[in-house]
Amino acid sequence: MRDWAHASARSEPQNGQRKMLIVFGSFFAIFIVIAIIATIASP
């Protein structure tokens, strides 16, 4: 998977960077949502 990402980034740096940004952003958003739910759910 890492090699594929490197090959993709080498052929299209901007597209690869954007994909990584989207993945990172979605993970961060999910983490924030979980944190908010945990805060609300906790007594």
Protein model, in words:
With 43 residues, the chain is mainly alpha-helical. It has 2 helices and no strands. α1 crosses α2 (13-41). The longest helix is centred in the middle third of the chain and has 29 residues, at 13-41. It is rod-shaped, with a radius of gyration of 16 Å. It starts with a helix and ends with a helix.
Residue fraction in strands: under 5%
Q: Helix amount, in percent?
A: over 70%
Shape: rod-shaped
Biggest β-sheet strands, sense, barrel: none
- Find the count of extended strands (DSSP E, 2+ residues): 0
The ordered string of helix (H) and strand (E) elements is: HH
Structural class: mainly alpha
The separation of the N and C termini measures 41 Å
Question: How would you name the oligomeric state of the polypeptide chains in this document?
Answer: single chain
Mean pLDDT: 80
- Annotation field: number of helices: 2
User: Ranges with pLDDT <50 over ≥5 residues?
Assistant: none
Write down the Rg: 16 Å
Topology:
Layout: H1 2-11, H2 13-41
Features:
mainly alpha
Give a brief outline of the structure:
This protein is mainly α. The protein has helices spanning 2-11, 13-41.
